[in-house]
Amino acid sequence: MKYMKQFLARRIFLVIAFLFVCTIFANIDSFAQENAVTSNSVAFEDTTIIEFENNDSVELETVRMWLGSDFTFKSFKTEKNWTGQKTPQGVIIFTTNEPIQPGESVKFGIKTDKVEPKINWRVFDKNENEVGTGVTLVTTTINENTQQIETTESSQNDVFVEAIFKIIPEKPKVGNSIRVAGEKFGANQKLDLYIGGERIESVQTDKAGNFMITTKVPETITAERTDFIVRDFAGNEKIVSLRLGESDSRLGSSEVRLTVSGLPDTVFRGDKVMVTGTAKPDSTVTATFKDKNGNTMTTLTASSDFQGNWLYEQTVPLNSELGERAIVITDGTDIIERKFNVAASEKILITPLRLKFEPGELIVFNGTAIPDQELEAVLEDPSGVEFASQIIDVDSSGNVSFEFPTLESSLKGTYVLVVSQGVEREIFTVGLGIFPQEPVIMKLDKLNYKAGDIAIIDLKGPSSATLSLLVLDPSDKEKYDDFIVLGPDGSASYNLPLNGYASGVYSIVVKRATDQYEAVFTVGLQTGSGPIQVRTTKDTYTPGEDVLILGSSAKNILLTITLTDPDGNIVKRKESFTDKNGIFTEGSFRIPLSAKEGIWIITTTSGTNSAKVDLKILKQLVEGLVVELDKESYRGGDILTVNGFGAKGGKVFFDILDFTNSTFTEFQSPITDNGNFQGLWKIPAEIEPGTYILKAKDSFKTIEITINIVK
Q1: pTM (predicted TM-score)
Q2: What is the phi/psi pair of residue 254, to 5°?
Q3: Which residues fall within 8 angstroms of residue 279, CB to CB, at 6 or more apart?
Q4: What is the rounded CA–CA span in Å between residue 157 and residue 683?
Q5: Number of other CB atoms surrounding residue 527 within 10 Å
Q6: Strand extents, DSSP E, 55-91
Q7: Which of 152-161, 474-483, 621-630, 661-670 is predicted least confidently?
Q8: Contacts of 675 (CB under 8 A, 6+ apart)
Q9: Cα–Cα distance for residue pair 117/76, rounded to 1 Å
Q10: Residue 327: how many other CB atoms lie within 10 Å
């Protein structure tokens, strides 16, 4: 008995010793893994320099950083041979073609909107295997000699709080095809789909953060409750857990009955719809589509495989009529009927009749839009100036077709069409005289914002191009800068937070190499606080002419300017604003080439205040040179503005003749492609009152007009 106790005690001691040794080695392994990459940082005010050291045996090629939910990146800098890009979700991805070797390190500089940021990071090797992860907490801002850094374990970011995805059908089977549809995952993001821990494939979201893919559940996965995971490069993930059904290949052919899945209650025009199901193996499945009255519209067929699986994949035509439909599916034995609705897509889908038109032709656009909602279409010429605009009433079908006439003298190049309905907006390009190029285009969702709002910036340009974004404050000082990477389709949507933006007028500039686009927006401006004065530079116009609108009112207020035709139809509507001196100028209005003769009205409103000016539109005026002055009389020190049209040649030359018919002064003006021109003369302050003569001359004609100078 004594020896038995000694034997048991020795056995227990050996087991405890073995477990202790295992624990030590396990901890050593864990420690080595956790310290494969270490970080150190130095911070001063809102700038942090963070250094990563490679303690592993592999080369490091990618570093991804993101901040806690209360912080925002303002800018960043990299070492030589490293590049960085910031995603719309706020993750900065640093990559290099010269990886960090074992024992080496790399530094990055970042600027944040607040001090003491929480910096999450993940480091990957060239095969995108994660090597290290962590969080750097800068607990104090430091001077040149002191710093306090604390590193803890990585925490899950919450960027997918609103993201959702679903599996179609809801009861998938091993080996069967499925459709995965996701929403609100962030614009233009690369995501990976995992099923049961196995990476299946990658997908790119669109600019709304949505995606849809068709894939297959691997045969190797067991028919049990399984996690479907959508994960981004930063490790953020969304999980749906479903119970997988047995593979149909395990069922006898006599047990396979006709089933239908994947057909939603509502489909949108332009969507790709996939309908799946089972039927008798190696049989023909027929699908008959019927309208709301039961009339057959079309019939499609598909073949089931040896397991009895079948699949229809069809794009809903853009010109499909809206309303209820029915689909009747049969395999010759069973019949299933399902009903669904065809609805207009939330997106505006418009394309030009051709990519290239010739000067003098009509530029024609066709497509679909949101039914029963007004659509505004603005066409800009290659110089960025508004060429023409229309406001179109969209009927219940959602189908739209509109056109813009051009002249043989119209500027050749890439024209930009901006169409909008409420918050929905799309940008398209078309060529006049050439095939359209890929310029950098930027549009904001509105003109005026409140402090703390988010300005939504739609961008378009070359595929996957990197753009720099710069915001200037009302004093033309740099307020904000960032980099934006366009998606594979050449577009992106960028959210600009306006926290801390004071009331005023801001400029925003987007650049790519020598290509640049500029726009303005306002913060905190209000409507209505006084009378409005408005005028145009002349009273009579011809179709195709630009209208320069000048006016004044209270300082820094919002205005709405509309152009109405003789029938009372609003042809153009645009928001504007007065500057710090109460002055406003709007040069984006143009009389349509198809304008009818009569009295057109420009109305400027702000709150309860409004002012109108009448324009006389004539399709045919006197042949040749026409000259008009902007006022009936002038005083010394005024600026005299001469407007005209019908000019020919390169320039119009002006002479001012005094009482003795001698030339008092002279000036000139260039002539546009449309024959329009404008000349300016600063009247001397000491000029004697009286009657002067303005003589205007082009290559073919000379006109004289009397100028009245008063005290």
Answers
A1: 0.43
A2: -75, -15
A3: 256, 257, 258, 259, 285, 304, 308, 310, 331, 334
A4: 66
A5: 17
A6: 60-67, 73-78, 82-86
A7: 152-161
A8: 645, 646, 647, 648
A9: 14
A10: 19
